[in-house]
Structures are given as structure tokens and as C-alpha cells.
Automatic annotation (TrEMBL):
Pfam families associated with the record: TGT
Organism: Congzhengia minquanensis
Protein name according to UniProt: Queuine tRNA-ribosyltransferase
Any single GO CC term annotated in Swiss-Prot or TrEMBL for this entry: cytosol
Gene it is expressed from: tgt
UniProt GO BP: tRNA queuosine(34) biosynthetic process
EC class of the enzyme, as a word: transferase
Length: 374
């Protein structure tokens, strides 16, 4: 399924073959939590924005409209009119971040909906059943995304339980695939362990033995420093299978992506480009701008003169700023379009640099540049 085409240091240029098309890696997955990108961007738009994979969320879609409803309508691909790959997050992160009251036990987690307080139970089998109903291309294993500030002893117990949950996920998905909408749904395992090197390494060694289609690094970008995150990647990835894609969950800034690729990561996702766009924080090839600043009030240039997105081809900074200031929905849409295109173009540029053997040169220029605030 996964073929490495070129390497430079630990960075990899690859292809991941799925039932819904081939993904060129490294790739940034666009986050459509509830089967839509926040900001009024449709699945049709995403193709123009160079999106290869859309990420949707098990927890949110289970609550609304209900995974049974999505299954009745033929699965997420038909529901949202998207014929390219879809990855569904297991819901674990949301259970542990949104549910104010929850109880963890071996079977799974009991919690209350953040919408209406309804009591819900979710464990490995429930997460797999929901994701099977959603019929995504890639299903993520149900795990505990623990607070990185918790003591080491807690992480030992948590990771051991997550390992047992992963085995249950694998068994259940294999059973479900026999009669599912998508009989080729793939399971990615998730490495956890906070900022503890030995727990991370041992966990990766164990889950690698399950020979899953892909592996993710979870529980990072949740409060630790960038240097701590990079260190965890440095010590953990040497124990991840070489011939399987590696996914860094919830990351991150353009600089994080470049540095992640340098360490051997293939897949990324983050709400940052769409969320920041809705507040006027826009990424450009020269750094980050706040379009709400007064200096852009009469600026007739595009958001990024080097960008070919629909927004930059057709509208000025002054116009986008005006729309956002006026609270017009179009302002959010144009800003989100730009940021998503920027991220997808960034990973395309990374792939080209790897193909041409100049990734390290690209990294030296753009890793610091793209984090600069203008």
C-alpha cells in the first residue's frame, strides 16, 4: 500500500495506495470535523485547493447527525460528495478534551455529550462500529490521549490499556469489514506515552508487531514545547515500521510540518489553517500576516503575491480585510480558502524538493521564514 519513492536523510517522499485513490506524501489532511470545513468551503472547493485527504471526526458525527444516518445515506463519501480518501479520528481526543465528566475503565469510557449532557459510552468496539458506519478510508484506533503533565506512572497504565484497546480495535474492524459499506477500511494504530522516551519507544515496538497499514504519533502539540515534540519524534520514529506511513496527529504550523518531514513523518493534520483564517491570521510565503491590521485597509495586493489560490487570483488584502471587519461570511470563506491552499501547496513544494534532492536546502530557508510574523 505504501511505497517510498525517494529519501533525503530521514525525510521520505512516498505514495499511499487506497481504495479511494493514491495519496502523494508528505501530505496535509484538511480537517472537516463534522463532514465540512468550517468557513463555508465545500468538498467541490477542496479539489481546487489541492486537498488529497479530508479528515472527519467520529465523536462529532456520532452525535450529529448520527453514524447510523450517515450509513443509511451510503457512508461519508456519498454523504459529503467526496471521492478521495477520508480519515476518521477515533473520537478519543474529543472524549478526553471535551467531556467534563468521564470515567475510564477497561471496557472503554463513559462520558457526557458536550452538546446536551447525554450519557455516552465509547470503547474500542464502539469506535470501530461508528467508523465502519462512516465508511472512511482510514479508521484511527481508539486511544486515551492523556494530559502530558500527568506523572509517569499514570502513563504506564494508560499506554498499556491503549495497547489492549488497539488489539480489540484490530479484531473488531476485521469482523466488521466482512459486511461493511467499505470492506477495505484500514486501521492506523496510535503511539502514546507523553514526553517519556522509554514509554514511547516500548509502545512503538509493541504496536509495530501488529503489522497495521499505518502508524500515528498521538498526544503531542498539546502543551509541550516544539523542542520536546521534535525530541519525541527523534527517539520514537526509528522504531516505527519503515514500510508504513507515519502520521503526526494535530500538527501543526508550517514550520512544524517541515521539521516533522525532516524526521520521517508522512501525514499531518491540524485545524490551524482554517481556524486562524477565520480570525484574519493568514499564512504567506514570507511569513504570517494579520489581515485585520490597519495597514492593509487600502492594500490592493493579494494576500500572497506568490500564491495562486482563488482568493489571491481574484481579491485584494483590502477587500478580504473589509469583509472580515464587516462580519461577512464571504470574508471567512476567502481567508480559509487561502490558508488551506497554502498548506496543500506547502506539502506539494516539500514533495518536489524531495524529488529533486534539495529538501535540506528548502528546510533551511522556509522552516524559519514561515514562522515569522510580518
Amino acid at each position: 500500500m505504501f511505497k517510498i519513492l525517494k529519501t533525503e536523510g530521514r525525510a521520505r517522499r512516498g505514495e499511499f495506495h487506497t481504495p479511494h485513490g493514491t495519496v502523494q506524501t508528505p501530505v496535509f489532511m484538511n480537517v472537516g470535523t463534522s463532514a465540512a470545513i468550517k468557513g463555508g468551503v465545500s468538498s467541490v472547493d477542496l479539489k481546487d485547493l489541492k486537498c488529497q485527504v479530508e479528515l472527519c471526526n467520529t465523536y462529532h458525527l456520532h452525535l450529529r447527525p448520527g453514524d447510523g444516518v450517515v450509513a443509511e445515506l451510503g457512508g461519508l463519501h456519498k454523504f459529503m460528495n467526496w471521492d478521495r480518501p477520508i480519515l476518521t479520528d477515533s473520537g478519543g481526543f474529543q472524549v478526553f478534551s471535551l467531556a467534563s465528566i468521564r470515567k475510564i475503565k477497561e471496557e472503554g469510557v463513559s462520558f457526557q455529550s458536550h452538546i446536551d449532557g447525554q450519557k455516552i459510552f465509547m470503547g474500542p468496539e464502539e469506535s470501530m462500529r461508528i467508523q465502519s458506519n462512516l465508511a472512511s478510508t482510514i479508521a484511527m484506533a481508539f486511544d486515551e490521549c492523556a494530559d502530558s503533565t500527568l506523572p509517569k506512572e499514570y502513563f504506564k497504565e494508560s499506554v498499556a490499556r491503549t495497547e489492549r484497546w488497539l488489539e480489540r480495535c484490530k479484531t473488531e474492524l476485521a469482523r466488521l469489514n466482512k459486511t461493511a459499506i467499505n470492506k477495505e477500511q484500514m486501521l492506523f494504530g496510535i503511539n502514546q506515552g507523553g514526553v517519556y522516551d522509554d514509554i514511547r519507544i516500548e509502545n512503538m515496538k509493541k504496536i509495530a508487531k501488529l503489522d497495521l497499514p499505518g502508524y500515528a504519533i498521538g498526544g503531542l502539540a498539546v502543551g509541550e514545547t516544539a523542542e520536546e515534540m521534535y525530541h519525541i519524534l527523534d527517539v520514537t520514529l526509528p522504531f516505527a515500521p519503515e514500510n508504513k506511513p507515519r502520521y503526526l496527529m494535530g500538527v501543526g504550523t508550517p514550520t512544524n510540518i517541515i521539521e516533522g518531514v525532516a524526521r520521517g513523518i508522512d501525514f499531518f493534520d491540524c485545524v490551524m489553517p482554517s481556524r486562524n483564517a477565520r480570525h484574519g491570521h493568514l499564512f504567506t510565503s514570507n511569513g504570517i500576516i494579520n489581515i485585520m491590521n490597519l495597514k492593509y485597509q487600502t492594500d490592493t495586493s493579494p494576500i500572497d503575491p506568490n500564491c495562486s489560490c482563488p482568493t489571491c487570483r481574484n481579491h485584494s488584502r483590502a477587500y478580504v480585510r473589509h469583509l472580515l471587519k464587516a462580519g461577512e461570511m464571504l470574508g471567512m470563506r476567502l481567508a480559509v480558502i487561502h490558508n488551506l491552499y497554502f498548506y496543500n501547496q506547502l506539502t506539494e513544494n516539500i514533495r518536489t524538493a524531495l524529488e529533486e534532492g534539495r529538501f535540506e536546502e528548502f528546510r533551511k530557508i522556509y522552516s524559519p521564514l514561515l514562522s515569522k510574523r510580518i
